[in-house]
Amino acid sequence: MGKLLIVTGMSGAGKTVALKSLEDMGYYCVDNLPIPLVDKFAELAAEGNEKIEKAALGIDIRSGGELKLLKEILDEWDIHGKIHYEILFLDASDEVLIKRFKETRRAHPLSRDGRVETGISEERDDLLWLRNRAEVIIDTSRLLTKELRGQLSNIFEKNRQYENLQVTIVSFGFKYGIPEDADLLFDVRFLPNPYYVTELRRHTGREQAVRDYVLRGGVADTFLGKLVDMLSFLIPYYIEEGKNQLVIGIGCTGGKHRSVTIAELLYQALAETAEYGLGIDHRDAER
Prior knowledge:
This protein has two domains: 4-160, Rossmann fold (3-Layer(aba) Sandwich); 165-282, no CATH class. The chain is 41% helix and 19% strand. It is built from nine helices and nine strands. Strand 2, helix 2 and strand 3 form a beta-alpha-beta unit. The mean pLDDT is 92.
């Protein structure tokens, strides 16, 4: 067996999806194994069991007080080098986690008083040492399930280099307000507006006819090229500074045509060489 992958993170951040995805990639996955058995499991897997070429072990806050024992086990592995392992930590913002728990009507494992917020806060404190120790951190706040699966495939199946930065491209309409979490904002209201073309008005920038209209004249292509160049220059410096979230806002009047077109094309351009997490969110496209 190669490296043992420890999959952990905040409850509601996508660990179940991650383990299922890894299983589809050929990993032997075990979830919520009692911590006292972790060392024995790793030793058995490392002995060269032909049926276990790569293994993933799901561990989370349900282990309770035994998490302290996990730290001792990992320290022992580091000292003696007997087990080669890597930690994948799945995270999400408190607001997103609260929303997910409310939508699924699940109780947080630590919300003894019934308040999800209390459980999340306590869990963050308990798992901080694991997050600090993780080689790969993926923030799933804005990721669709298919996007998370794609990132996991790039990292653990295609072996692409990965930096712990999640870049999210958000298209939006200025008439509905600027995204509060945007780090960089770009106004594309100077581009041809399909809104004034009756047959295009109800469509979005995800459709080719709308894109063709926005791209006519070549100005959008020139702008996109300069934007990609600038972000290719900036992103490595954000990574170097330890930034783990970058939200790029692309805005037009209604957030349906021009901003969606540019956001989609920007996503495609960055995805070709991205060594970081990449997601896209069309906030106002369906308004």
